[in-house]
Write the structure tokens for this entry.
Amino acid sequence: MIVQFWRDNMWNSDDIAWTFAIVRVLKNEESSVPAVGRFNAGQKLVFWAMALLVPVLFFTGIVIWEVYFASYTTIEQQRIAVLIHGLSAIAAILIWITHVYAGLWVRGSIRAMTQGSVTPGWAWRHHRKWLQRLAAGTGRVDRRRT
């Protein structure tokens, strides 16, 4: 997924404006929120956090996997890996909980995640710049889902 979505998750000035309007987003007053592209700042934060945390969890997990790798690492390295692994796991769980809550909070998001499509009205309300690019023919469309 990183290879497929990294370009759409690059941070830009729209994300800064959207972040400053987060209170309006939480109140579902999105008509006055700055328009964003395919993903908003919150979605990008989840993407990049998980893109970082999953490899960290994997590699620290290997370091602390005593059955196979204990002879290749010192006790100090294992202790540091356990600490990093635990903190990364807590961060990933908190991000996941927030992601689920946000998906439930924004009506129509569950359909987008489970079916891979949204209505034009939903796209206009939540990702206006992306919809405009698609309508103009300059946005990328995932042909497998259309």
